[in-house]
Write a structure and sequence with these properties.
Layout: H1 2-22, E1 26-31, H2 37-52, E2 56-61, H3 66-79, E3 83-86, H4 95-103, E4 108-111, E5 123-127, H5 129-144, E6 148-154, H6 160-173, E7 179-186, H7 191-204, E8 210-213, H8 216-228, E9 236-238, H9 244-251, E10 258-260, H10 263-278, E11 287-290, E12 293-295
Parallel strand pairs: 1-2, 1-3, 3-4, 4-5, 5-11, 6-7, 6-8, 8-9
Antiparallel strand pairs: 10-12
Helix pairs in contact: 2-10, 3-4, 5-6, 7-8
Length: 303
């Protein structure tokens, strides 16, 4: 009888050990919002790359709501996720969520959006927004000239990308005193919000030469407002992201330019860093810049 019990215990031990050996780490992909095609590409690419590396991965949508994001992190930590590929909702507010994960031993790899800390995320893989928008600024001046009136539609107030893009653009444009910014408002990186904002601006301003938008979703909303007002040919629109629809409008001469970001590159890098972490690596660069390319009618055939 004693021998039978020992054999059964041995079988149970082998079964448990085998199960533990085949278990793979779980990867969470937490995205600021899926109400934007660009972030859908980022999220799906992150999952696809994690799957390619042999890991289970799932997307969690924060809907641009910091409270949702915080709930995601608490649930993911409690559920035993092993790494988080993260697109933050807020440069400051998201830090506490990352630190909770860090305390629990869960590495966090930021994608596209940055947090204002070098002590929280394991690594941050980010587009070079500032340099990309310097190129947009140069194209803006080439198109409009050194004199004119323009509008700027900013992104989310709590997102560093909003200010990096705006600062890059103004680094160039502010060198020309004849270029006057007559309105600057937040469109929250949202197509419908930007359309509504532009409609209101048009009611108060008859003379506008151009609009610079902090992302392509807003550029599409602005273009829609201008088209409805019969001013889409008169007022030039500039965006940023590399949205497929915007690239097609650039080819058609309806939008002037955008900055091509590479969400698939950021997602692939983040997933590969998570894989390296699982293999034992612990030293990662805090900031990994990803280049941005200027898309104009001339270069659009390359994209």
């Amino acid at each position: 009888m004693r021998n039978v019990i020992l054999v059964l215990l041995g079988l149970i031990t082998v079964a448990c050990t085998s199960k533990k050996e085949v278990e793979k780490p779980k990867v969470a992909v937490v995205i600021s919002t899926l109400n934007n095609p660009w972030f859908v590409v980022l999220a799906e690419s992150a999952v696809a790359n994690a799957n390619r590396l042999g890991y289970e991965a799932k997307i969690f949508d924060s809907q641009n709501n910091p409270a949702n994001e915080s709930n995601h992190f608490e649930n993911l930590i409690a559920s035993g996720y092993d790494a988080i590929l993260f697109n933050p909702t807020d440069a400051d507010g998201s830090i506490s969520n990352i630190l909770k994960a860090k305390k629990a031993g869960v590495p966090v790899f930021c994608m596209d959006r940055e947090v204002n800390s070098n002590e929280a995320a394991t690594s941050q893989i980010l587009s070079d927004n500032y340099s990309g928008c310097i190129a947009i600024g140069v194209e803006f001046v080439k198109t409009i000239g050194e004199k004119g009136k323009y509008v700027e539609i900013l992104g989310l107030a709590g997102d560093n990308n909003t200010y990096a893009r705006s600062n890059g653009f103004h680094t160039v444009v502010d060198q020309f005193p004849g270029l006057e910014m007559i309105a600057q408002q937040n469109g929250d990186f949202d197509r419908n919000k930007a359309m509504e904002v532009m409609e209101t601006i048009l009611q108060a301003n008859d003379s506008i030469d151009a609009v610079f938008c902090g992302n392509d979703s807003m550029a599409l909303g602005v273009y829609q407002a201008l088209k409805s007002a019969g001013k889409s040919e008169q007022i030039k629109v500039f965006g940023f992201d590399g949205n497929d629809e915007v690239v097609e409008k650039i080819k058609a001469g309806e939008i002037v330019a955008t900055g091509m970001q590479y969400p698939k590159v950021m997602a692939k890098t983040a997933a590969e860093y998570a894989d390296q972490y699982f293999q034992g690596k612990r030293n990662f660069p805090q900031h990994v810049p990803v280049a941005v390319d200027l898309v104009t009618m001339e270069t659009s055939k390359n994209f």
